[in-house]
Amino acid sequence: MLRIRVIPCLLLHNGGLVKTVRFRRPTYVGDPINAIKIFNDKEVDELALIDIDASRQGRGPDFALLERVNKEAFMPLACGGGIRTPDHVRRVLGLGYEKVILDSVVLGEPGSVEAASAACGSQSVVVCIDTKRDLFGRLRVYDHLRRRCTRLGPGEYARLAQARGAGEVIVYSVDSEGTFQGYDVKAVREVSDAVTVPVVALGGAGKLQDFADVVRDGGATAVAAGSFFVFHGPHRAVLITYPERQELERVFGEGRGE
């Protein structure tokens, strides 16, 4: 088994799957159940689902859809979007999901991390940190509900999240998301230097070497991607893919005693 987890991240919008570029212009890419079946066949390490509508609409998770997805999935699942209360956490985990992902709720309600951790244990609580550079080029935590940078740096925010009970942190780059131009390695490094929990890099992967670079230079302990796994070719034709195990072993230098 690979030491580095490689995680497809799927965005839910109006019951379907979409991909965005820098958190804008959602493009429909298919049905979530069909995607799950394909990823089953490809034996992915784990999979993350994020509902990009729930928090913005002020509603909870779509539990009916999450249940249908879990019934089809043969891999560990994490999900985020609209999870605000311990009851939401318990219901999601009760459906068979291994982790919940908390995002915008943490900015307004920092105690939500503690409540989630108390409800299910820190190993099941993931905090997703949206990062973006402000007008002065400084790395900041981005509030996607208000569409603006906060005054918090991602490292500072990550330390607070871990202190409150987060067992894992995702660094999600707004500037890189959907661009295929590589991860924001500096943002990932700032967070990985600030915490002792696992750090997942997300946003910008365009080639396999990007995975290795963000692990080596950014200190990521896992990598996630969206567009990389659902688009193919210069015209971005929708084609769900996942690298062969041998390819991943080669790019990470695993499987040969390295």
How would you describe the overall organization of this protein?
- The protein is of the alpha/beta class.
- The protein has a single domain (5-252), classed as Aldolase class I (TIM Barrel, Alpha-Beta Barrel).
- 36% of the residues lie in helices and 27% in strands.
- It has 11 helices and 14 strands.
- Strands 1-4-5-6-7-10-11-12 form an 8-stranded parallel barrel, surrounded by 5 helices. The protein has a two-stranded antiparallel ribbon with strand order 13-14.
- A hairpin with a 4-residue loop joins β13 (231-232) and β14 (237-238).
- α4 packs across α6 and α9 (208-218) runs parallel beside α11.
- The longest helix is centred in the middle third of the chain and has 11 residues, at 154-164.
- The chain is globular, with a radius of gyration of 17 Å.
Short description:
36% of the residues lie in helices and 27% in strands.
